[in-house]
Amino acid sequence: MTNTMWGGRFAAGPAAIMERINASIDFDKRLFAQDIAGSKAHAAMLTRQGILRPEDGAAIERGLDQILQEIEGGKFTFKTALEDIHMNVEARLKEIIGERDGPLGRALYLSRPIQITDPACLSCHTTPEETPASVVKAYGTTGGYGWKLNEIIGAQIVSVPMSLPIENANRAFYTFIGSLAGVFVVLFIILNVMLSFLIVGPITQMSGAADKISTGDMDIPELADSGRDEVALLARSFNRMRRSLEKAITLIDEK
Description:
The chain is mainly α. It has helices spanning about 15-20, 25-30, 30-50, 55-70, 85-95, 120-125, 135-140, 165-215, 230-255, and strands at about 100, 105-115, 150-160.
């Protein structure tokens, strides 16, 4: 049997009808959210007690969140052979996450059991006496025998040093931050140019005109006052004030 709760106690699995009777996954799969929440709480408790490392607890929580999304999105495959919702979630969690110490340091790994499900395999792996002579001659009589149907005889493990995904993640992060910083720099330059052209420039021109008028110089041209924004309104007011002041000075001079 594949990772059943009692699988280590028996050499062979039950009959198909007994497997269907024993499995509760058809109805308790509706409790997936509660089961995952309980597993997350248990992992959090183990982390607080120092039994799990914080990074391992965080990895378990991320894996359980992914399983929750898979179930809610209809992408999770429930297996009757795993009997109930908890065993289904646990088996999938083992496929998603894994971390161990290796020759190159901490490594992420994915492990799956190698199970004998094809009766044809037993023709070469039961006993040396029942194995074809050519196989015995090639591989000897000391290993690879005594296999039984549905027995797990090994594990397939694929591991990747954590330095590799961390390096890729850092590269992606720095690329994102660099791109974001570049966008902000370009926006800052554009906003600065627009601010200078639309606001700072006209205000500086008005300041210079006001300074000349205050000294009696009325020969300056009127300011551009086209538009409906506040700067254009200020320019129109300034021009009107200049004309009024010029008329007042002319009347004074005539008298």
